[in-house]
Amino acid sequence: MTPLALSAGWIALIAVAVLAVWFVGLYNGLVRLKNIGKEAWAQIDVQLKRRHDLVPNLVETAKGYMKHERETLERVIQARNAAVAVQADPSKGPAALGAAENMLTGALRQFFALSEAYPDLKANQNMLKLQEELTSTENRIAFSRQHYNDSVRRYNTKLEQVPTNIVKNFGDFPPLEFFELEDAAQREVPKVSF
């Protein structure tokens, strides 16, 4: 074997090794971004569960004061139960969960607007504590949504860029859905004032 042929063989081997390392790096980068998106989605789940757990306590505290407002209280509980059901179903995506959460937010808005007519309820310590917890939870949900959508944007952008748009075909890398609210009024944190 001539030294030139031996040299060309080493160059080809090194080129293949560099391409393999480059491919593995791109693939692992996609895996990392996909998992960051999944983790961000899990954080939204945690905060929504916290919200869903607060709603029954809020309704129970208000029941004694709002005896004549049974329909509003029932709507809040129904909306909460629907949101819990969607959250528990792994086949439902961010769009379905967003719609269910929109219904819950609307029901809570009606509840809080109606509760303004009950001064004793506004002064109740349990209600004040629940109000503070709910406000804190709404802020956490907003932060979690933002983090999730940022993660989805980074991941989906990477999927579309060259050369990862080729590498994605060698694994399970579907694009992720953004968590969006459809109604502009729903984009605001519910006003909770007692």
CATH homologous superfamily identity = LemA-like domain
Report Rg. Answer: 25 Å
Q: How is the CATH topology named?
A: de novo design (two linked rop proteins)
- Number of DSSP E strands: 0
- Give the C-level CATH assignment: Mainly Alpha
Could you name the ranges where pLDDT drops below 50 across 5 or more consecutive residues?
A: none
Q: What's the end-to-end separation, in Å? A: 89 Å
Structure description:
With 194 residues, this protein is mainly alpha-helical. Helices cover 76% and strands 0% of the residues. The chain has a single domain (37-187), classed as de novo design (two linked rop proteins), CATH 1.20.1440. Helix 1 (3-63) runs antiparallel to helix 2 (70-88). The protein is rod-shaped, with a radius of gyration of 25 Å. The mean pLDDT is 87.
Give me a quick take on this structure.
About 75% of the residues lie in helices and about 0% in strands. With about 190 residues, the chain is an all-alpha fold.
Descriptive keywords:
76% helix, 6 helices, 194 residues, single chain, mainly alpha, de novo design (two linked rop proteins)
Any chance you could write out the topology, listing elements then pairs?
Layout: H1 3-63, H2 70-88, H3 94-115, H4 119-123, H5 125-160, H6 164-167
Helix pairs in contact: 1-2, 1-5, 2-3
